[in-house]
């Protein structure tokens, strides 16, 4: 088995696992988490279309590696193994954050009717672990697949998400007031605060 075959199999396995975790918890939230205002759907639609554009070459890589030569770069094998480690450790991180946020997960920047402020689990350290774990996961996949297209597309998506995060935090500030302000003071947006 070549390293490309091994990495392709592992990318497929971890993607199936990540989608299964996400779909399960999102389904539970839609079923039990209260209503969502549909006005946040424009940004969601844009993000989903952009993600599809970014991921189509990855699907091409999984099906036929040779056809995606234009979207790939050369790197040492050790760098690909770092991607393997990042992607692998992202799976339990994904489960941890979804099980912590529970029915509060929302596909848009808006909160659910019954939304609670979650400040434990990974949310004790950072306010948006989903974005960071998702970024880490696909960054690792990009390293494993040697795909510059995925790494560049991921960076663009994170810039869009960064803007959405600011809007999301404004909504949370309105909903939770002083409690959310105190939470912001003690946590980092994407990385833990080193100094408080």
Tell me the layout of helices and strands.
Blueprint: H1 3-32, H2 41-63, H3 77-101, H4 129-145, H5 148-176, H6 178-186
Structural class assignment: mainly alpha
CATH fold-type name:
Four Helix Bundle (Hemerythrin (Met), subunit A)
CATH hierarchy, class: Mainly Alpha
Count of structural domains: 1
Distance between the termini: 50 Å
Helix content: 55-70%
Q: SSE order, as H and E? A: HHHHHH
Any guess at the CATH architecture? Up-down Bundle
| Mean pLDDT, all residues | 88
Number of strands: 0
Runs with pLDDT <50, length 5+? none
Shape: elongated
Radius of gyration: 18 Å
Tell me the major beta sheet. Answer: none
> Count of helices?
6
β-strand percent reads under 5%
Q: Mind explaining what this structure looks like?
A:
The chain is mainly α and 196 residues long. The chain has a single domain, classed as Four Helix Bundle (Hemerythrin (Met), subunit A) (Up-down Bundle), CATH 1.20.120.1630. It contains six helices and no strands. Helix 1 packs parallel to helix 3. The model has no long low-confidence stretch (mean pLDDT 88).
Provide a quick synopsis of the model.
The protein has helices at residues 3-32, 41-63, 77-101, 129-145, 148-176, 178-186. The protein is mainly α and 196 residues long. The longest helix is centred in the N-terminal third of the chain and has 30 residues, at 3-32.
């Amino acid at each position: 088995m070549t390293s490309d075959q091994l990495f392709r199999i592992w990318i497929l396995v971890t993607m199936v696992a990540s989608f299964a975790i996400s779909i399960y918890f999102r389904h539970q939230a839609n079923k039990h988490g209260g209503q969502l205002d549909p006005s946040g759907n424009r940004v969601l639609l844009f993000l989903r279309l952009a993600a599809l554009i970014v991921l189509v070459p990855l699907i091409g890589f999984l099906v036929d590696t040779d056809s995606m030569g234009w979207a790939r770069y050369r790197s040492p094998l050790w760098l690909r193994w770092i991607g393997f480690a990042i992607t692998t450790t992202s799976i339990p991180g994904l489960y941890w954050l979804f099980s912590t946020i529970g029915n509060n997960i929302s596909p848009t920047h808006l909160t659910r009717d019954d939304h609670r402020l979650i400040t434990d689990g990974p949310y004790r350290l950072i306010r948006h672990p989903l974005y960071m774990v998702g970024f880490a996961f696909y960054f690792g996949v990009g390293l494993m697949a040697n795909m510059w297209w995925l790494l560049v597309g991921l960076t663009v998506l994170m810039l869009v998400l960064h803007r959405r995060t600011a809007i999301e935090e404004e909504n949370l500030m309105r909903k939770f007031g002083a409690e959310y302000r105190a939470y912001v003071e003690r946590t980092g947006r994407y990385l833990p605060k080193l100094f408080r």
